[in-house]
Every structure is written in structure tokens, then in C-alpha cells.
Amino acid sequence: MRSLFIALLASTAPAALFAAPVELPATVTAVTLFPQGAQVTRTVAVPAGGEILVPNLPDGTDPAGLRVTGTGLAIGAVTLIDERQPAAAEVVSPALAAAREKVAALTEALAAKQDGVAQIRAKAEAARAKAEFLKGLDTANTAPADIAKLAQTVAEGVLAASGEAIAAEAEVRRADVALQPDRDALEAAQKALAALEHPEKGSDSLLVTATGAGTLTITTFVQGAGWTPSYDLRLDGTAGTLAIDRFVSVRQATGEDWTGVDLTLSTARPSDRTDPSELWPQLLRIGPDQPVGVMAKSAMREADSFAMPVAEAAPMPMTLEMQGETVTYRYATPVDIRDGVENLRLGLDTLERPAKVLAEAVPARDDTAYRVAEGTNTGVEALLPGPATLFVDGAVVGTAEMPAVAAGAPFRFGFGAIDGLRLKRLVPEANEGDRGLISKSNERREVAQISVENLTGRDWPVRLIDQVPYSEQEDLKIDWTATPAPTATDWTDKRGLLAWEFDLAAGKTQAVKLETTIRWPADQVLQ
């Protein structure tokens, strides 16, 4: 038996130590969902103090995450039980009493209707008996003159009795069919009553010593639950705004249904690590330059492992950590979340952010430019990573994976190809070879002709991105020229990337000439 003792009342009466605890079920009233895990709050109405047994906590409840408080109650010893349960005096809860009353009422109603069906069935049986009696009449002592009259009477009587039987049997069938909703209602009520009287096994219980009357609040943490965000990104290219419709998909597999709970979503991550990584001293050594064989390299690695402690890498979190303060969202209406059978999708809110819309062109890789929206997350909260559906002026253009965007951080989302912006990158001039025996150097020269043609029927702001190689060796010389000159070099802090930004009118073409020359010593090979 695993026990968690929060406190112990020194004034407990000796007789109370031997009294059977009173069993009072708890109701899940509130849930705080984290991206992984959930904090579940249950309440118990305690009419009087003493030992209270709270059954049906999730199997494997973690004592470290268990908290018990009372309103109007003084809490004493608290014991978490996961094996043999103590005998408890039954207390009929309002829900259990209502379930029993419902079963009794439905049973009586069904029995009364079944009595009516039995009466109709008796009428049918009487009519059949009458018909059989008439068929079996003895005509031996009947005068010949009366036989025809008697036959007519018998025939009419059999016909009438058979008709009554047929009508009564039809009425029995209709009445029996009409009883099916009553049978279904009674069966459902019996199942609900059985669930209350005989709850599932494999659960934990809580034994609480309390003084007074009031409400007992039990808070536990469970791992088998969580929520993930999803988005609809709606770009209005004319207004230059990006509307972000936020949704959440909640899930839980705790072994119980959560019905009518107050739902709070939190961006906190109690399941993740809470401290930063640790760095160890880095030891460097020098020695004579000599060939090192495979075995020697292995020995050196082994020696280094003793010289410098190596910390085991901490597991990476499942999702990116949020930057900034923890944000919580409380859902406005009570929510039902069933156990393990569905992802419940809930609408959260809509955020609007100003966005710059442009066409981004990468002729070295693509034949068309792509629509891009850029801006800043001007809100006070981060956007968490999740799947997104993309809309442009009300039409779906694709799907993407939303990255984590911190509050105040820039964002950039692609919204599909612009088929009317055609890209070309041609290399009409390229040569590589010796420049001469005297210079003892090699040279490689490339001239690229790049163009963006606007066939869309509207003007576009364009960002053209291309690249030139770069070198970190003194003997490897790289020179380049571009006409027109790029507006930015080392674009997005990537060496060798060039960017041109310009407005391209409908029907026009923008050309860029990029010339690159590479030189290196003759006794070296370009890699």
C-alpha cells in the first residue's frame, strides 16, 4: 500500500480510529490542460467530519502531484491507497439515489404497459377459443331442417371470432413494438445504476480524515492528456493584414470521461525539464605532427574521454519551448472530453497582424515566384507550433506547419506559387582552365543571366534571391559583380546570398546579370 500523509490530527478520538470510513465519490469539476499532461480538480461534498473514503481516482495516481484542500473543513491525515481498499459505510449519493429511483419508475411503467399487452393477448386467445368451439359443435341431434341455419350461424360466428383474434393479435404486435423505447430506457438506466453501484476496478482511492462539513478539493496530475494548437492563416493581400484563427485539439486517455468540466489551457510545460544545459571544461592539447593510425586514434579518443567529463545529453523536448510568460486560456463553456476516443477541436480566438505581402523569387531552384507574408507578432503572447491551413482572399491555397513565433518576433509565411511570375536563370558563359604557364594559377568564370517576368496582370513587389560562392582561404580568390547591384548581401546572415528588391509592373521583365570569377593556385584542386 502506498500512502501519502499530509498531516495528522493529534486530537482524533480513539473511537474514530476503528469506525468504518464513509465513502463519498468525487466529481471532476475542472481541468487544466498542458501541452503534455493535465491537472485535474475533483470536489467532494462532505456532510460531516470523520474518515472519508474517496474512490475511483485514476490508477497509478502520483503522490507527488496530489494536493488536498478543504473549504469549511480541517484536513488531517491523507492516505493514497492503490491496493486493498478498507471497508466503508455506504452513503447514497444524490446521483445514486436518482439512478435507483429512475430504474424503479421505469420498471413499474414498463410492467404496467406489459400488463396491457397481456390483456390484449388474452382477448386474442378468447376469440380463437370461440372459433374453435364453434367449429367443434356436434350436429348429431339437430333436425335436418335446422342444419343449414346452424351451419350459417356457425360460419358467421367463426368468421367474427377469427376476425376478432386477428385484430387483437395485430394490436398485440403494435403494443409490443411501442414498448421498445421503454425497454431501451430501462436498460440504459440499469447500466447507469450498475456503473454507480459497481465502479470499475483498478483505480486508486483516497482516505481523508476531516473535521467539520464543507467541500473537499482534490487535485492530481496525469500524463495521459494534452492539447495541440492549429491555425487558419487568412491573408488579405489588398488590406495587408494576416488574420490568425486559432484552434486547439484536446485529448485525454486517463481511463475516465470528463463531463461538463471547466477547461483551462496552459502553455506551461511541467513535463519538460526546468533547468538549463550544463557545460563542462574543454581541455585542448598540442603535440608533434605525426600520422595517427586507427588504433592510435581510438586510444586518443579514450584518453580524451578520461581527460574531459562528458555529460549525457538531456532528451530534447517534444516541441519547441515557448519564449515569454506562460499564457492560460479558459474556455467559456463546460466541455465534455471522452477518454481515449477522440481529439476534441475547440475554437480559441482570432488574432490580426499587419503583414507585408511580396513575391519571393529563387530562380536557381524554382520556375515561379511564391507569395510571402512577413510581419511581427505584435501581441503579448507567443504563437505555438502547429499545423496551419492557408487562405488567400478567402480561398484555400495549401497547408503548412506553423513554427514557434515569440511575442515581438518576426514571422514569415509562404502562401503558395504565383504562376504568372515566371523565373529564368541561364548560364551562357562558363569556362574553367589554366590562365597560363607563367602565372601557375587556375581560373573559373561564370556569367548568369537571371530574369523575372510578370504575366499576372497586376504589379508585384518582388524579392529576388541568388547566390555566389564564398571562401575562407587566402589563396582561393572569389570576385563577383552584379548588374543591377543587390540591395542586400549575406541575406538573412547566410554568406554568399544576395537579394534584390524591386517593384515589377504588369507585363514587365526585370533582368539581372551576375558574373563570378574564382582563382586558385595551379597545384591545388577546387573542391
Automatic annotation (TrEMBL):
It comes from the Bacteria. It comes from Paenirhodobacter ferrireducens. Residues 1-19 form the signal peptide. Keywords: Signal. The lineage of its organism: Bacteria, Pseudomonadati, Pseudomonadota, Alphaproteobacteria, Rhodobacterales. NCBIfam families: mucoidy inhibitor MuiA family protein. It holds the Pfam family DUF4140. This is Mucoidy inhibitor MuiA family protein. PANTHER family: DUF4139 DOMAIN-CONTAINING PROTEIN. InterPro entries: CHP02231, DUF4139, DUF4140. Coiled coil: none annotated. Residues 216-521 form the DUF4139 domain. Residues 31-134 form the DUF4140 domain.
